[in-house]
Sequence to fold (365 residues):
Amino acid sequence: MAYIVHASDLHLGAGFAFLPESIAAIVKKEQPDVVSRIVEIACDRKADAIVIAGDLFDVPDPDPSLAEYVANTFAKATCPVLIASGNHDYYTVGGVYDSAVWPENVHFFRSKQPEAYELACGTRVYGSSYRSNTRDTFEGFRAEGAADVLIYHGDIGFADSKFAPFSRKELAACGCKYVACGHWHNLVGIQAEGDVTYAYPGISIWSGGDDPEGGHICCGTVDENGAKMEIVALPGRKFMEVTMDVTGMDESQIEQATAEHLPMGAERDVYSFVLTGRIPEGLDAENAVRRIATGEILYLRRIIDKTTVLKDIWNGAGEDSLGGMFLGFVKEAYDAAETQEEKEHYRLVAGYGRTALFGEEVPEE
Fold:
């Protein structure tokens, strides 16, 4: 039986260009800490191996000081660290994965074809590396043992992918008990295809993908009976996106709603707010959010305003113009209407009149 700690897609050295410059500098400085957290978890759980399923670095030639930090951190692990490169940090002769700074417990799979590394417990771990930012099919691989592990970076179930396509049929027939996957930044979780368990833990620290929280690894045991894995959340800063429908709210209500979306500990996280719904002219929803967010949280990434501004359909009614006279006449009828159905009728008359007179679209309610 082998206890495996599986991480992928750390993308160390990413520039975080999507963040404001001041926030990006802080997050980039913190980013390598994720390696320490993974090593600590492996040591605490007495793991037999740490496996990195590609894209440890964001580029094939990271800053030497960053590579040295990672090497020194992996040296503290009490088990082998097995690394397969991905499409971002693909293997090049003389590149970072050929450097002499790496400690003895770190093993790189340099071959394009899967090769085996046998752990002290007898479990074999297969891995291979990208040689460019794309890779041919992974079809045809077969393991030899009864409790083997495959490190895989690519797309399962996408035959036309440029990233090592692997059909579900071939996956089920590969002979491994666990396939440690990388490349997908979203947390997919523990899956099974036939007798084969596989998982995409997602990106270990978020760098702008579709899964804003990020920060997960997979841990568990593998033996001849199968794999028993679990998703483990990594501590650290989260990147949260909040969507708020502000229809019918005034600015004080928007402020209150913003505060309600910020839990305890939010000052550690980076937040984006997406505002939706319909608001009246003159309501400054964005600044209402900003007044609370900048006071309650340390890192506000952005506010995306997707609201629709409701125009005042009666604007100009009674003015000394043809349009003003028309709107004034319809407004009087609207005010005198006794039922909601009648009011809606006159409102539509006013809307279509504005379209005919002023070229405006019929305002929404």
The mean pLDDT is 88. Residues 135 and 164 are 5 Å apart (CA to CA). The helical segments are 21-30, 33-44, 64-74, 168-172, 251-260, 285-296, 322-336, 340-358. The radius of gyration is 28 Å.
